[in-house]
Specification:
Elements: E1 4-9, H1 15-24, E2 28-34, H2 43-46, E3 56-58, E4 64-66, H3 68-75, H4 91-119, H5 124-149, H6 162-171, H7 173-177, H8 186-196, H9 199-208, E5 219-222, H10 225-231
Parallel strand pairs: 1-2, 2-5
Antiparallel strand pairs: 1-3, 3-4
Helix pairs in contact: 1-3, 1-6, 1-9, 4-5, 4-6
Length: 235
């Protein structure tokens, strides 16, 4: 079967997996999941992901893989020839896995207090405390990433990898929340700007916005959740 990525809107971290699939030029389909409504917690979606999160990937052989890190590591060997990913057991794979882990535990986690405030309608002094906490965590993560980036054009050197796709999908949240000020980190800002102009990034942004956008990769269209369940034998 053609793989299906179950991606979340609005502003899901699944954005990075869409970009990765576009870069890899492999056939795939998308299933849109509303994280702000009941669909993410529905009994139907629980058959795809019982912890009610996105992204999830239905692989070509019908297996289900959840969590961005797991999905990107699953896809990484398919980018070994192009340098986007690496085969398990190689030094490149270890470097990629290490960077993905840092992005998940430091950058992603740094935004968690801000998303908590947004999702639960926290205001006033309680919100100010959460924003200050997030600011401190995110500033620390940016300091470390700026140092790790060094003089390279991308996170792992002069060529883009799947780590850059994941980075952009998370880093764009700064524009949404107004925290942190990335202009204080010129190398990271340069990386963000380079990625923002990438056709796959523009495609993923259009997909999230519900626009009709042209794919330069292997996108084969959207599939409804109920149809995906039938195809996977989960209906």
């Amino acid at each position: 079967m053609t793989p299906i990525l179950f991606y979340g809107v609005p502003a899901g971290c699944s954005f990075g997996s869409i970009v990765a699939l576009e870069w890899l030029q492999i056939p795939y389909r998308l299933c849109r999941i509303d994280m702000a409504g009941e669909e993410i917690r529905s009994e139907a979606y629980s058959r795809i992901n019982p912890v009610a999160e996105t992204p999830s990937l239905a692989t070509a052989d019908g297996r289900l893989v959840a969590e961005s890190m797991a999905i990107l590591n699953h896809l990484a060997p398919q980018g070994a020839e192009s340098g986007l990913g690496f085969r398990q057991g190689t030094a490149g794979f270890d470097r990629l896995n290490q960077m993905l882990a840092f992005l998940n535990t430091a950058l992603f986690d740094g935004f968690s207090p801000l998303w908590h405030a947004y999702e639960h309608g926290v205001e006033g002094e309680a919100k100010a405390v959460l924003v200050a906490y997030a600011q401190a965590k995110l500033t620390g993560a940016h300091v470390q990433l700026e140092r790790m980036l060094g003089e390279g054009a991308y996170l792992l050197g002069e060529s883009r990898t799947l780590a850059d796709a994941y980075f952009y999908g998370i880093a764009r949240w700064a524009e949404y929340h107004g925290v942190p000020d990335r202009s204080a980190f010129p190398r990271l800002q340069g990386l963000f700007d380079r990625l923002a102009d990438d056709p796959a990034v523009r495609f993923a942004a259009g997909v999230e916005a519900g626009e009709e956008v042209a794919s330069a990769g292997g996108f084969r269209g959207h599939v409804r959740l109920e149809d995906a369940l039938k195809e996977l034998g989960l209906a």
